[in-house]
Amino acid sequence: MFAITVAAESKYPVKLKFEQMSTRDVSMLLNNHNVPQIIASSWEAASKTYLSKPPTGKTAKYDLNGDDIEEIFVYLSGQNMCGTGGCHLIIFQYSTENQMLEYKTARSSSDDILILNNLSSDGYHDIAIRLMDGTSMSKAQAYTVYKWKNGDLKQTDKTTLFQRPDNGN
């Protein structure tokens, strides 16, 4: 049961591929783009407190709204960065009007994220996230579906399992 990576026009979900970010780059991004203060201050505190095992930041890109400009996903994990619903996922969108990245939304999450190309709401592709159990830090079996409403990402009560289309499992 896993998603395959395919072209954006496919009916199948696309699994985001995250790459490591430097601590400095994460700090600059969090402090310069209207990210909620609680997230930015948690990152800074964890970076200073846990020097032997600092928090980590990873990034992925995907065009969620079909404007040919990729949105930026930033996933923050490590000590002091995760709660009962998972760790921090922040989504940034490039503003052509302001010529800069702007904070769009944040959620508790894991880094196991699917873009649902065949489902959209409010002009953006819906997203499915395998949430984490905050106590055991294990990922749930099913993906939780998120939809866009008034420019924000909202969790639905829908969960789904995704299977490889080539073998039907």
Summarize the entry for a quick read:
With about 170 residues, the protein is mainly beta. It has two helices and eleven strands, in the order E-E-H-H-E-E-E-E-E-E-E-E-E.
Write out key terms for the chains shown.
5-stranded antiparallel beta sheet; 6-stranded antiparallel beta sheet; 2 helices
Give an overview in words.
The protein is mainly beta. It has one domain (14-160). 13% of the residues lie in helices and 43% in strands. It is built from 2 helices and 11 strands. The chain has helices at 23-31, 37-49, and strands spanning 14-15, 19-21, 56-62, 71-77, 82-83, 86-95, 100-109, 113-121, 124-129, 143-149, 152-160. Strands 2, 3, 4, 5, 6 and 7 form a 6-stranded antiparallel sheet that branches. It has a 5-stranded antiparallel sheet with strand order 1-8-9-10-11, with no helix packed on it. Helix 1 (23-31) runs antiparallel to helix 2 (37-49). It is globular and about 45 Å long.
Largest sheet: 6 strands, antiparallel
Return the average pLDDT rounded to an integer: 83
Reading the helices and strands in chain order gives EEHHEEEEEEEEE
Contiguous uncertain segments of 5+ residues: 1-9, 164-169
**Strand fraction:** 35-45%
Radius of gyration: 16 Å
Number of structurally distinct domains: 1
Q: What general outline do the C-alpha atoms trace?
A: globular
Number of helices: 2
Structural class: mainly beta
Q: What's the helical proportion of residues? A: 10-25%
- State the end-to-end CA separation: 6 Å
- Count of distinct strands: 11
